[in-house]
Amino acid sequence: MAKENNVKLHGMWASPYVKRVEIALKIKGIPYEFVEEDLVNKSQLLLQYNPVHKKVPVFIHNGKPISESLVILKYIDETWKNGPPLLPQDPYKRAKVRFWTIFLFENLLSVARSEGEAQETASKVVFEKVKLLEEGMKDLFQGENHHIDGENMGILDVVLCSLFGAHKAQEEVLGVKFIDPEKFPRVCSWVTTLTEVTAVKEFRPPHEKLVVVLQFIRQRALQASAA
Amino acid sequence: MAEVKLIGFWASPFSDRVIWALKLKGVNYEYVEEDPYNKTQLLLQHNPVHKKVPVLIHGGKSIPESSIILEYIEETWPQNPLLPQDAYHRAMARFWIKFGEEKMATICSVFKTAGAEQEKAIEEATEQLKIIEEKGLGDKKFFGGGGIGLIDIAFGWLAYLYEVVEEVSAVKVLDAGTFPRLHAWIQNFKEVPVIKESLPNHQKLLEHLKRRREIHLALSNCLD
Fold it and tell me: Which candidate from B65, B71, B131 shows the least CB-CB separation from A52?
């Protein structure tokens, strides 16, 4: 008996966490309905589906809601076996991928929310992490060049993409360049390749729109901390 | 069968989680005690990025980060499953494990604070504990249902470490009156044979945390 597959995703067009889920759904070829949420005016439905965090993305499969982007990605991987796997089969390789997925953290947000000396300190942390990733890539991909296309993107590609895919807009708004081809050639080449993948390109909002929204988030955050 | 080694620290709840999971699965392992204030070459070699315990070494392969180790154990030794079979309930389990990890610092912030700051810390801790009790545990015996699972292991620090934190910080947050269901869970959790025999010595933990709190408060006074 075929399982009825009703998939809905509640999200917001500029959210990198939502983007992760959209890319994963695209890679797996899963049809879904996207529900745009106004985060300033959250819908009753969102509050009902994610009462703990009240955030997007919220993924609803046959009426059952799941929140937290990485939890959603693992659920997708375990439920739809026909598409390419997001995580490797071998438990040790899975552990290595999981390690880097949670390592690439929301430290970027701290950079966005600060200025002057505070921003410099926050930026140092991000630089450190990107440096460790640059070195870790040697072990992760064991010497070979990591070849990605729409067919074999994994969870780490998806996460990296959601963090740094919009790096040009980030650089313009934040005035800090993390994806530096001289300092971090491997990471830079990885991010560039990712942004060219069709599945990713489709979901990338236009540069100008992203710059506007990032500036808005930054101004609000700076005002909030100054208050 | 490949050799299993665990580098841990007796007072670390992250270390304990891994011990409980290994024991519940009946996996034999060699334990190596590490002093996190005096790190050895072994630790730096096996966890070069974070330089922290616990680290699991299986057949020579190193796995750091307790949440990642727990998933690795579950996948490698499928006997006595600690996660539900159903993908949706597994997602729920992972949600709560992540929630517990994110909120641990807030719930334990009473430890690093005093005076008015500590009052605020108590309020915030109470708020998070209420969410955990109402939405996470609900009326179940264990977080995963009838038997102990990965969520209970991940929240295990609430069952034994938190009372020591409270005692050392001279506060009471997780009291039976306000949190009857969490209290019942704590009793059930501590009665599980593997847990009962593995909990660190209460007195030793008390002395250790007293020293840590003194250091924290002294440091924060210097930094003011």
Answer: B131
